[in-house]
Specification:
heterodimer; A: mainly alpha; 8 helices; elongated; B: alpha/beta; six-stranded mixed sheet
């Protein structure tokens, strides 16, 4: 079997651009998804059932439907009425963030609930507000326990960003598909894509291991 | 003189299970009140109602004349002046000893770091743990952890201290060091409510002993009277088992 490195070299500049797109969208979505996720997770722990319900429904919807479908809904349904037309970059950011938020919410909830209630009681007994108890006492301990779960979530998010090729977001898979279309080759474009994703997720897991040891 | 804590008709249930049936008690400033009774008598629940870690269903609790259960009362403000020490210490494991003590004065009282640090070091000296300031709670023995927990509560300069079985989770040889700190505190005139099984402490330090059973105060009185000549059959029975 011949393996044509020359077409990989030819596509390298756009593949690198695609990689930067994937990295950028992933980082932005991890950040927004985590912030939304914290809010959703706290909401899901609300004392009253009717207050929990909207958060519950959100999480169930985004966990219970394929990201593939969510991307199409966001791209053709959600963004055009707001932005005026479709935009792959906005879709990428919005769809991944909304999806990641649902998973992050569960990680936050489980992490927070894993902390001994005595910690919260001690904080409250010192006159702290519920917010202060959460910020200074519960979250710092919970986040350490959440790191492995977040590691999984972030890795899944990076890999799932490949689905954005569907709406022609110029990320890694999109350019690999283009490469395949131009040269009618299978191994070169897809192996290259696989290697790039592997490098990204492997580096990410190393980074998270490092953070886990440091915290 | 007006009592510092007034409790009237206090009732608390967990679901269908009634834990406090009808508690009435006055506690005066500088008084040391020791609450004893069998497990499940509601004594810890009673104590936890005094800073609203448990929300009672009925009744009235006043601290320095302010009703805890009134809608206008901000419970955080009351809790600043009511310290609590827990059976399981509940130190913050992610913070050093000194940070455990400084956290609330800095965040709640809004003291400058320096003032909080000075206060913390002073309190660590008082409980005999100056050398542990930079240690993490995980490296402390049970007795040391509980003394740090007491220092942490005292850093807020509370007017009242609540102790919820402070020595029950300790190895026997560490009980003494914690009780010694509590005795010092009593001698300095701190108002204290202590739930404990340490009858020696109750007898020696308590100004008043309350015997609770099944969510009720069965009997209360001076330690010599309650331990020496209890007037209720149930008190006698309980004391004969624990003494």
């Amino acid at each position: 079997m011949d393996f044509r490195f020359d077409i990989i070299v030819h596509y390298l500049p756009v593949l690198l651009k695609g990689t930067l797109f994937t990295i950028g969208v992933s980082i932005a979505s991890i950040l927004l998804g985590s912030i939304l996720g914290l809010g959703l997770g706290l909401g899901k722990m609300a004392p009253k059932a009717y207050l929990r319900w909207p958060f519950h429904s959100y999480i169930n919807f985004f966990r219970g439907t394929p990201l593939y479908v969510q991307i199409l809904i966001v791209h053709f349904g959600l963004i055009p009425p707001i932005y005026g037309k479709t935009n792959a970059l906005i879709t990428a950011f919005v769809a991944l963030s909304l999806n990641s938020a649902a998973y992050s919410a569960e990680i936050f909830r489980a992490g927070i609930q894993s902390i001994d209630p005595g910690q919260r009681e001690a904080a409250l007994s010192l006159g702290m507000t519920k917010g202060q108890a959460m910020r200074f006492v519960i979250l710092p301990q919970a986040i350490k326990r959440m790191i492995p779960a977040f590691g999984n979530e972030f890795i899944v998010l990076v890999k799932d960003s490949s689905l954005l090729a569907l709406v022609a977001a110029p990320e890694i898979m999109y350019w690999s598909n283009t490469m395949k279309g131009q040269y009618l080759r299978i191994w070169e474009p897809y192996l290259t894509a696989a290697v790039i994703y592997f490098i990204l997720t492997y580096s990410l897991s190393k980074l998270l291991n490092y953070i886990e040891r440091r915290v | 003189m007006e009592p510092i804590i007034t409790v009237r008709n206090l009732q608390k249930s967990f679901g269908a299970h009634k834990v406090l049936t009808d508690i009435n008690v006055d506690i005066h400033s500088r008084e040391v009140v020791v609450v004893i009774g069998p497990s499940g008598s509601g004594k810890s629940t009673f104590l936890r109602c005094l800073n609203l870690l448990e929300q009672p269903q009925e009744g009235e609790i006043r601290i320095e004349g302010i009703s805890l259960l009134s809608k206008d009362t901000k419970i955080n403000d009351i809790r600043k002046d009511v310290g609590m020490v827990f059976q399981q210490f509940n130190l913050f494991p992610h913070k050093k000893v000194i940070e455990n003590i400084m956290l609330a004065p800095v965040q709640v009282r809004k003291w400058p770091e320096e003032q909080a640090r000075r206060k913390a070091l002073e309190l660590l000296q008082k409980v005999g743990l100056s050398e542990k300031a930079e240690a993490y709670p995980a490296s402390l023995s049970g007795g040391q952890a509980q003394r740090v927990a007491i220092a942490r509560a005292l850093a807020m300069e509370p007017k009242i201290m609540l102790f919820d079985e402070p020595t029950s989770a300790l190895d026997p040889e560490m009980v003494g060091e914690v009780l010694a700190v509590m005795k010092d505190l009593a001698r300095e005139g701190m108002t204290m409510v202590v739930v404990t099984h340490e009858m020696g402490f109750a007898r020696e330090v308590g100004d008043r002993v309350i015997f609770m059973e099944q969510g009720l105060i069965v009997e209360e009185g001076k330690p010599e009277q309650l331990f020496g000549s209890p007037s209720h059959e149930r008190t006698r029975e309980f004391l004969s088992k624990v003494l």
